[in-house]
Amino acid sequence: MINSNLRFTTETMWEIYQKLQSLPPKERIVFEVINPDLESKTFNGEVKKIGNISYRYRSHKAWIDLAEILNFQYLTPEKSDFPFIKIHYQNLDIQNSWHLKKGSLEERYGTQSLFARINKLEEPNFLAEYTESLQKCSISKGMRILALGVNRGDELAIFKDICSPNVYKTLNFVGIDAVESSILQARKRFSKNHSWIISNINNWSSWDIGKFDILIAIGVLHSTSLSGKNILTPLLKKFLHSNSKIVLGFPNSRYIDGEIKFGAKSKNYKKPEWSLLLKDIGYYRRLLFRQGFNVTVTGKYYLFITGI
What we know:
By secondary structure, this protein is α/β, with parallel strands linked by helices. Helices cover 29% and strands 27% of the residues. It folds into two domains: 13-91, no CATH class; 98-307, Vaccinia Virus protein VP39 (Rossmann fold, 3-Layer(aba) Sandwich), CATH 3.40.50.150. It is built from ten helices and 15 strands. It starts with 12 loop residues before the first helix and ends with a strand.
């Protein structure tokens, strides 16, 4: 562990960034800063003074962001000599990521996979943005909802919370995924108004499932195993009607050692690179607009395209 005699007061963020980045690899680093709780309504970098100590103010959010950039987990700060606190950064194992796992779909996404430990509905930003997209769809009695790439059904679980019991019991859900163990788990998990199909989305033309009021596809259309840009238009024609709504989700994040990190990682780049994501978002937004949808793009760790 690095000794906590590392103390920052008037250093610029660039100087701090360079210093922490240059430290030898350690499981944890500890350094002291002025307690952010001693100020309010203050901008990062503003020079303040407590007694005879001059310092640059920085919020807890700034130290959390810096930890994420440096591949650390931000731990609970510890009191030190007034007016300082000790910031603790825990090293993240960048190899402990489901994104790096190889093998079959079952091995990567099944119930025994590292991916299966993720519950996106426990990520505050995903939850807030996704439920806002669903609420734009004006869910009402008797609606049919189709979810593609649904895995064990997390995206459908939230309907019970955001709908009244009288509405929820009349809804009809169909979830489709190619991972057998996940679909089997979903069948045990949900009530009778849910149907589950084990199928690769590329086989959509063989599905005889009727029309739907809402189509949901979260983390699906960008997949390298799926030509999302080629199949979305025929999906809309076959499974939606003139008043249907659509919610598409595209990951702008990755998981490392249990932590969600902002920005999707691209091959051949050390840092997140946005070109492909922005290209996809622009394409699907234009496609839905041309189909007559009123389209919004929202989100942070996941970007949601909602067409109503």
